[in-house]
């Protein structure tokens, strides 16, 4: 029984990037052996185990044989005689097909280290085309490592384009697509992700709200995202809103269902798409600001308004003074005391009307 650290942990160590997850492959073991050593089995389609102390994932070495179309339907063989090289051969990219043994020695049968040095994302073998999810994974890796100068190998890009022409992307569920998008939003620039999909004629297939995608649009988004603080709690949300800002509002309706986007993301994207024109008005109007605040329900959901402001600032940094004024005036409107209105004897619908008038006056004074 031999244990190797594999995949992303090895790749990111070679790139001097933080290692987030450690995955291991076990060669020469059986399910029974792993269980007898105290590991907990969690895999259903193939044996994956959690280490009894570290809880890191340990998977038995396996091979895969495709059955049917799409990213599912693989038949796995995880017998003890599967070699490490056979296990690495089923992986998507050479940079992900490097292993490290318990003595720290690297096992690199497909020249992944060379591709890391040359900043190339290259598929391991023809089995790459059996899983259409790998198209999105490669696009995500291209986005994640763009700052290091990584590019996709021409032959890999050509294979991805052929998979698109064969209709393989249609087999992906919306949930799996969103998983890749969310990972890209966490650690990469979504503009580069879109560039890759556009180059292989896949962008509109995956994201139908984009009728066109231009280099200027990509460059602008890349520049805006580069100015964001990645450790900000709203980093993903703001990048998502900036990404969809050029879309038409009608194209963003029901994306919770059509793209399986979480409600918060969908709502914030529509908020900015709908109300970003406020930044282009010649003068700030209290009525327009109050309409915005009511639409975003800032009275009960201030976090939603904050995402709008952060997106607006990232979208148009030269509008800092205006956005700051909107924020400050909003705080004045929030502080209007409804109890004082009730104390004046107003009831029912009158309270709502007087509250609205008081908020409007607070905005007018602050603006």
Q: Strand count, sense and closure of the main sheet?
A: 7 strands, mixed
CATH 4th-level superfamily of the domain at 1-114: Beta Polymerase, domain 2
Helix content: 40-55%
Order of strands in the sheet with most strands: 3-4-5-2-1-8-9
Strand fraction equals 5-15%
Radius of gyration: 26 Å
Total count of helical runs of at least 4 residues: 18
CATH architecture of the domain at 1-114: 2-Layer Sandwich
Shape: elongated
**Mean pLDDT rating:** 93
Unreliable parts: none
Structural class: alpha+beta
Q: Quote the CATH topology of the domain at 1-114.
A: Beta Polymerase, domain 2
Straight-line distance between termini:
71 Å
Walk me through the topology.
Blueprint lengths: L1 E5 L1 H7 L8 E5 L3 H6 L3 E2 L6 E3 L6 E4 L2 E4 L7 E4 L6 H6 L9 E2 L5 E2 L4 H6 L2 E2 L11 H12 L6 E2 L1 H12 L8 H13 L3 H10 L3 H4 L8 H12 L8 H10 L10 H4 L4 H13 L10 H10 L6 H14 L4 H15 L3 H6 L5 H18 L1
Parallel strand pairs: 2-5, 10-11
Antiparallel strand pairs: 1-2, 1-8, 3-4, 4-5, 6-7, 8-9
Helix pairs in contact: 5-7, 5-8, 8-10, 11-13, 11-15, 13-15, 14-18, 16-18
Structural description of this entry:
About 35% of the residues are buried. It is built from 18 helices and 11 strands. A 7-stranded mixed β-sheet has the order 3-4-5-2-1-8-9. It has a domain at about 1-115: Beta Polymerase, domain 2 (2-Layer Sandwich), CATH 3.30.460.10. A hairpin with a 7-residue loop joins strand 6 and strand 7. The longest helix is centred in the C-terminal third of the chain and has 18 residues, at about 350-365. The protein is an alpha+beta fold and about 375 residues long. It has helices spanning about 10-15, 30-35, 85-90, 110-115, 135-145, 155-165, 175-185, 190-200, 205, 215-225, 235-245, 255-260, 265-275, 285-295, 300-315, 320-335, 340-345, 350-365; strands at about 1-5, 25, 40, 50, 55-60, 65, 75, 100, 105, 120, 150. The protein is about 50% helix and about 10% strand.
